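Researcher: We're teaching a course module on how sequence relates to structure. For the next exercise, students receive a sequence and then see the predicted structure as tokens, so they can try to spot secondary structure elements on their own. Here is the exercise chain.
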Amino acid sequence: MNSRVCVGKILSPFGIRGLLRLKSFTSPKENIFEFSKLFIEQDGCLVLLKVDGFRNYRANFLVDIQDIGYRSIASLYT
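Model: And here is the predicted structure for the students to work with:
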């Protein structure tokens, strides 16, 4: 059985390099990055996100996702 649990939410693109603002629903919030795979659902399909890096930003995170290098591409994920 494949079950999914929502562990966070992509809020918006950040900056011109295609970073994404991410809100974590885990406790502590950094635990979201302990999952072996993170997916988002787009148009009924699951898309694997490969996290290249992250940093704290206010109460959320700024996340660098592999293959997203521009704000215009990042906006497709929100």
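Model: If you want an answer key for the exercise: The beta strands are 8-14, 19-24, 38-42, 45-49, 51-57, 60-65. The helical segments are 71-74.
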